[in-house]
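To whoever is on call:

I kicked off a structure prediction for a single chain this morning and the downstream step that reads the tokens threw a length-mismatch warning. I double-checked the sequence; it's 195 residues and nothing unusual in it as far as I can see. Pasting both halves so you can look.
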Amino acid sequence: MEAVRTKILVREVMNGPVISASPSDSIAEVAKKMVESKVGSVVIIEREKPVGIVTDGDFVQKIVVKDLKPSSVKARDIMSQPIHTIEADKDVSDAARSLRKLGIKRLGVTRKGRLVGIISMSDIISVTPELMEILSEKRRIGTWQAERRPSTVSGYCDSCNQWSDLLTEIDDKYLCENCLTEARRGKESETEVQP
């Protein structure tokens, strides 16, 4: 019997890879990245750590309303900080509660202390029909059953640190197709060497 899915995880809904910029980049450069990547926010990274986020709302409130020239304003001058985060394996309902409590529209998504994506309120709204279906199925069955994990997810490979839309979890690590193949070859070699 197929297990009933009981929740949707943040990592299944998040957007990635993270689009980033430097605190010293001009807002014109940040805006260009947002348009080219078709995203509503850019994470500001300094010394390989996220220090803030610039959103489309920041442009309106801090640049347009004040009639400032985007090429003369730096990302550090308008970024929201700190960037609030949620773990990738949390339920999207936890993300929705955090967004509402903090009064923001986006959360950074972390896995093992590393920023791997962004989840927004619109991402959560996009899975509302699926959430309603899950609730309906739970009510019909009248019981909570174990969740079935998806076979693949998007994110950064724990071995080569490259982005992949086809990560597979093995031994508590998410591996891309290449690293998964290498890991399997390694296990096969170990098996052949054993007497």
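Update from on-call: the warning came from a stale cache, not from the record. Cleared it. Sanity check on the structure: Confidence is low (pLDDT under 50) at residues 143-150.
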